[in-house]
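In response to the reviewer comment on reproducibility (Comment 2.3), we provide here a single inverse folding case reported in full, input and output, so that an independent group could reproduce the run without further information from us. The structure tokens appear first.
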């Protein structure tokens, strides 16, 4: 009953505001103040950036929980259930808890119109206040300066990186986007920057507000990484830690930023090297180049949807030069499609595409097929291509092809393009009752 009630609430929330995205803090602040959620009753760590936000939130949350603190965390968007967006002490909030939160927000908002995302952020605040937590870690949704999470003053702010994405809302240059993202920092409070070449607007913004800034590769960072361990350092210490479960050297940037941020939370929050090692070693979030065996075929799922994320993914797969990579792809029409494909087409050997029919924002598969052909031609790396009626059928066909090649080509099925792409395929795997193993 709670799941059905939550589905009803979510369907209603999609109709309450005239625009799905409406950046600004006035409306959401007025409701939070009426509800008594400004400020929140414990330290707050806010994570913004273009890529790596969810991973960084997860590392910070995992370290804090290893130290015995009761945590709240937000992640967005979700893969399979809205409940994934709100975590209380390491567990997804229940559908009943979220419905209760929505009902409370509805009772206090009056005639103030809120977006779907704003309802979700306020629901997280309700759940966190009810749970009497020690520390809260929030993931910024879009941008930073005008994002609903920026309603609260961060005790520590993290900026993972600045890349081109959401140009319609944030601007078409890294300088414009950086100006928006750095808005989560606060004067005289720590700001942890994990972008190795930040735009000038980030540097200038932090200097203008007088934030206490720590910069990757200068004030903190990592070195001596191998398959099992890596070394974190900052101005106070260095420590050898287990390799994160999530692949890619850029995850060491995310983990380093999380460690630096957690170590700068105000007293009485304190974490030891043991807590950090335990937290980093156990942290995991689905869909970040996540590897699963489906029906005996290794499949890699990646929610990355911009050129910077695609470049990082390709770098991770480059070491596996002998593998036949079969891509299952669907991309949203408002993304830099040619920029994403320019990277992936250098590593993909065979393509399967299909429509995400239930999602109007998705690029039609015929248009995606044309874009793939163009990208492969530009890269002088032709690849076989197959169009299917749906993304789910595309994945099934790719799985069948991989099984046929498994005896001699070491195939890897890569599912990428967006959160929606990964979510649709993961749901198809569940619906088809395919065998799945780590």
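Designed residues, in position order:
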């Amino acid at each position: 009953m709670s799941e059905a009630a939550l589905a009803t609430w979510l369907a209603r929330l999609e109709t309450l505001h005239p625009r799905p995205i409406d950046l600004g803090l006035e409306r959401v602040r007025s409701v939070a103040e009426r509800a008594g959620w400004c400020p929140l009753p414990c330290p707050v760590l806010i994570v913004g950036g273009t890529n790596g936000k969810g991973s960084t939130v997860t590392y910070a949350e995992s370290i804090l929980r290893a130290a015995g603190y009761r945590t709240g965390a937000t992640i967005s968007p979700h893969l399979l259930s809205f409940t994934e967006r709100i975590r209380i002490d390491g567990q997804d909030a229940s559908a009943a808890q979220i419905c209760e939160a929505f009902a409370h927000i509805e009772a206090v908002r009056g005639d103030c119109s809120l977006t779907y995302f704003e309802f979700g952020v306020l629901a997280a605040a309700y759940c966190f206040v009810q749970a009497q937590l020690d520390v809260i870690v929030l993931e910024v949704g879009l941008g930073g300066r005008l994002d609903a999470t920026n309603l609260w003053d961060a005790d520590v702010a993290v900026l993972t990186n600045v890349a081109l994405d959401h140009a319609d809302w944030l601007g078409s240059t890294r300088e414009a986007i950086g100006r928006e993202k750095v808005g989560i920092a606060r004067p005289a409070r720590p700001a942890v920057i994990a972008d190795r070449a930040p735009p000038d607007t980030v540097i200038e913004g932090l200097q203008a507000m007088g934030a206490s800034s720590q910069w990757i590769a200068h004030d903190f960072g990592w070195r001596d990484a191998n398959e099992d361990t890596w070394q974190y350092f900052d101005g106070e210490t260095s420590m050898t830690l287990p390799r994160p479960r999530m692949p890619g050297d850029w995850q060491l940037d995310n983990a380093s930023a999380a460690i630096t941020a957690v170590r700068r939370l105000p007293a009485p929050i304190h974490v030891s090297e043991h807590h950090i090692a335990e937290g980093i070693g156990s942290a995991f979030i689905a869909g970040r180049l996540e590897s699963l065996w489906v029906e005996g075929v290794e499949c890699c799922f990646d929610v990355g949807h911009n050129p910077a994320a695609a470049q990082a993914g390709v770098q991770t797969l480059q070491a596996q030069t002998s593998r036949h990579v079969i891509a299952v792809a669907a991309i949203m029409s408002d993304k830099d499609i040619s920029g994403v494909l320019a990277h992936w087409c250098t590593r993909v050997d065979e393509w399967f595409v299909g429509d995400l029919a239930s999602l109007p924002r998705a690029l039609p598969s015929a248009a995606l097929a044309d874009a793939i052909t163009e990208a492969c031609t530009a890269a002088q790396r032709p690849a076989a291509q197959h169009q299917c009626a749906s993304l789910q059928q595309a994945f099934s066909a790719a799985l069948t092809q991989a099984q046929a090649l498994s005896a001699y080509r070491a195939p890897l099925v890569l599912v990428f393009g967006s959160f929606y792409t990964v979510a649709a395929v993961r749901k198809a795997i569940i619906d088809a009752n395919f065998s799945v193993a780590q």
